[in-house]
């Protein structure tokens, strides 16, 4: 117990570092992953902006990034992170790799959520002369909203796990604390505490995401 009290200040810092990393990656996932997912959907066969070349290129790029294990992606992006931020250590540096991993992950979820929309509604909108932007804004996004929020919840939970991995190369956060105190110093109390903290955080994110998704679901 005394060990926990001693590292409590560092535990608080590590917790907020994890929130910072995950928060930045989620923001980037929404800003870039959401449009990419929509592009994958609307350029599919039979849709109003059908384009097999765009869909193929975007799809291959997304699959390429998703096929790389995150720990390898972390190391692979170190030169880019250093070029971008001037450092490879700390939560901001770790958020670069987390963001790159989050973009294709969320893009595929967005595409899957959009596929649940009744295509008859989209076809009707096209028939009355609605522009692509109007269809995306007034039909696809509102209809797919519950799935988008659920997908964002899944992405956030995955990023929490990835952030713990980022701690192994000096990314900060709860994972870094678990490695430094729990693993290197053989302190099981600290290790168990960090694991419990991660579990509580994941449960909170899952509950909140489910609650919001149900609240916006008008079906």
From TrEMBL:
Residues 15-207 form the ABC transmembrane type-1 domain. It is a multi-pass membrane protein. Keywords: Cell membrane, Membrane, Transmembrane, Transmembrane helix, Transport. GO terms for cellular component: plasma membrane. It comes from the Bacteria. One of its GO terms (biological process) is D-methionine transmembrane transport. It is found in: Cell membrane. PROSITE patterns: ABC_TM1. The chain crosses the membrane at residues 20-42, 54-77, 89-109, 121-141, 147-169, 190-209. PANTHER family: ABC TRANSPORTER PERMEASE, D-METHIONINE TRANSPORT SYSTEM PERMEASE PROTEIN METI-RELATED. Belongs to the binding-protein-dependent transport system permease family. CysTW subfamily. This is ABC transporter permease. It comes from Terrihalobacillus insolitus.
